[in-house]
């Protein structure tokens, strides 16, 4: 389980991934990966996460784009120094893929919107299928 991290405008995004063997069915080309994201506000201003925009690459299927409000039904507000974590998942049709994207935040006191980069992370089996 590797971690990737990126800081944009004082917001640190860290991602770890895990292959979920229990929920996967390789014989049916179903590969289930979970990912845990930690969002840390290292800036000196209060912010709120408004939207997410994902690009999902699956080596055996067309790329997907997913956009929507918040994350896992939440639009967390983070004071300076606070963090928020959530876990989600992605089902691929192959054992090799990746995800990356952006979050749209707002500075709650000024109303200024800004985008934060979600670093590209790999969705790859930790072992080789026979």
Write the layout of secondary structure elements.
Elements: E1 3-8, E2 11-19, E3 31-41, E4 47-58, E5 61-69, E6 77-78, E7 83-92, E8 96-107, E9 113-124
Antiparallel strand pairs: 1-2, 2-3, 3-7, 4-5, 4-6, 4-8, 8-9
Task: Describe the structure concisely.
The chain has strands at 3-8, 11-19, 31-41, 47-58, 61-69, 77-78, 83-92, 96-107, 113-124.
Give a structural overview:
It is built from no helices and 9 strands. Helices cover 0% and strands 64% of the residues. A hairpin with a 2-residue loop joins β1 and β2 (11-19). It is mainly β and 130 residues long. The chain has strands at residues 3-8, 11-19, 31-41, 47-58, 61-69, 77-78, 83-92, 96-107, 113-124. The mean pLDDT is 95. Strands 4, 5, 6, 8 and 9 form a 5-stranded antiparallel beta sheet that branches. A 4-stranded antiparallel beta sheet has the order 1-2-3-7, with no helix packed on it. It has one domain (3-124): Immunoglobulin-like (Sandwich).
Radius of gyration: 16 Å
Per DSSP E runs of 2 or more residues, the count of β-strands stands at 9
Helix content: under 10%
Instruction: Name the CATH homologous superfamily.
Output: ApaG domain
- Give the rounded overall mean pLDDT: 95
| Annotated CATH topology | Immunoglobulin-like
CATH architecture: Sandwich
Assembly type of the chains comes to single chain
**Order of H and E elements:** EEEEEEEEE
- CATH C-level label: Mainly Beta
So what's the overall shape?
A: elongated
Total number of distinct structural domains = 1
Structure classification:
mainly beta
β-strand percent reads over 45%
Uncertain spans: none
Number of helices, counting only DSSP H or I runs of 4 residues or more: 0
Distance between the termini: 22 Å
